[in-house]
Amino acid sequence: MIFPPELEARFDKMLKAYPEGRQRSAVIPMLMYAQDAIGMVTPELVQEVARRCGVTALQVDEVVGYYTMLHRKPFGRHHIQVCTNISCMLRGGEELLAHASKRLGIGNREATADGQFSLEEVECIGACSWAPALIDNYEFHHSVTPEKLDQLIDSLQKKAQ
Fold this sequence. Notes:
Elements: H1 5-17, H2 27-38, H3 43-53, H4 57-66, E1 78-83, H5 86-90, H6 93-104, E2 110-111, E3 117-122, E4 134-136, E5 139-141, H7 146-160
Helix pairs in contact: 2-3, 3-4
C-alpha cells in the first residue's frame, strides 16, 4: 500500500523510535494517521500495518475492533463526536446529540449523503468542566448549546462551498 510521502516519513520515524522488536507499539498511531489520510481502516490497511509492525493481521484487526475511534467505513469530512458521559449528560449532552442527529438527518455512527458530516456518541473526552462538549475532527468545543451547534454546522457548511 502506498501512502503520501509525508505519511511515509511519519511512519518511518515512528518505527525507528521503538527498540527492535517493539514496533508493535506503533500499531494504533499508524492506524490513526492512516485513517486520517485515507478516510477509514480498510482490509489493505490492516495488512500493511501488520507487515510494517511485525504482527499478524488478526492482531491489528483486533485493535480496530476494540477502539471505537477506528472506523471500518468512511465517515464525514467533519466527524462530530458528542460526549454523553456523566458530566456532559447532566448538562445536556444527550439532548445535544439528539439535536445534532435531527439537524444532520443522521444517527449515531452514520454520515450524511454528501459525505460532509458524520455523527458519533462518545464517552468522556476529558472536558467535564466545560460540559457539554463535542469534538469536530480534532477541535474541541466546550459549553455547547443547540444554538452553538447550529452555528458550528452552518460555518462548516459555508467553508465547504
